[in-house]
Write a structure and sequence with these properties.
The structure is a homodimer. Helix content of chain A is 34%, strand content 20%. Chain A is an alpha+beta fold. The first copy, chain A, is globular and about 45 Å long. Strand 6 of chain A pairs antiparallel with strand 6 of chain B, so a sheet runs across the interface. The first copy, chain A, binds a DNA duplex through helix 4.
Chain lengths: 146, 146
DNA sequence: GTGCTAGATTTGACTATGTCAAGTCTTTGG
DNA sequence: CCAAAGACTTGACATAGTCAAATCTAGCAC
């Protein structure tokens, strides 16, 4: 599996480095991670313990992975950028206003842009991004209790 | 009109101050302004010339106006927070990937949440936020010319 | 009109998130 | 193994915003 992560990188024309494998592996375990989540977890590499990675290196890697279509970024209002591995399926997101929990939701249509605006205003549209805002189950309970 | 801006504030239980009137007036003229757009324009007040306003004051005013439902914030990925006056009509946005231009689009349904997700995952959803990404007419031309 | 007080604003330090540029190190093909 | 393109590190810097404490003022009571 560690091997396949390396192959995945190479198949996209990227060199297989310890840092990139570590970040991909970390994202496999934690979808919707922020850059600082990854730093806090110290990006463990398989059995071999924690690996440090510079802040700049982290942003470089994430940018490279995003350019190679291996990760996708989302930026819900009020949250730092989140990185996730699911790409190419044009899915959308549920975001909790209180705790920030993010859940994936499949797109009913499947291909971007899955939704047409009422007016196009001359734009060439390539994607419809949808975020549903609300309260997650746990935060609803917390509100009900108070 | 300056008067009506003051009345609008009072009707929401906010004091009518020069700073708040100035910001509301500035937003009337420039929808989709960032905080720094407002600072750069120095927030002219009617005939009476430019008025300075501290950075903190600006954020306080914008927060107060947002709490009073007089302005709405949007945060497209890669852009600082934008403030706009249209509220309560649940409209959506077109955003240009290249120049950042933002256009309003009416919502076909009209009331939030205007769209249901395929799966709800236990969330109590109160709003569906939609951003259509693409290139505005002008940036399409620029690309075609190159 | 005057004074009071809750509410509004200012000031200045600080935080979070990220970018830029230059130099060093490493992966990979030959 | 070696060279060189590509990847990573370091450290300064930028942007967008937050926090806390002091000061000021709009709007009300008189």
């Amino acid at each position: 599996m560690e091997q396949s992560v390396g192959d995945l990188l190479k198949s996209r024309g990227l060199r297989s480095t310890a840092q990139r494998r570590a970040i991909l592996t970390a994202l496999l375990g934690h979808p919707h991670s922020t850059a600082s989540d990854l730093v806090k977890r110290r990006i463990g590499v398989g059995e071999s313990g924690p690996l440090g990675l510079s802040k700049q290196g982290l942003y470089n890697v994430l940018e490279d992975l995003a350019n190679a279509q291996l990760v996708r970024c989302i930026e819900p209002a009020g949250s730092p950028t989140l990185y996730e591995l699911r790409v190419g399926d044009n899915h959308h997101h549920l975001v909790c206003r209180k705790c920030g929990l993010v859940e994936d939701v499949d797109c009913a249509v499947g291909v971007a842009p899955c939704l047409d605006p009422v007016e196009r205003k001359g734009f060439a549209i390539d994607e419809a991004e949808i975020i549903w805002w609300g309260l997650c189950a746990q935060c609803q309970e917390a509100v009900a209790d108070s």
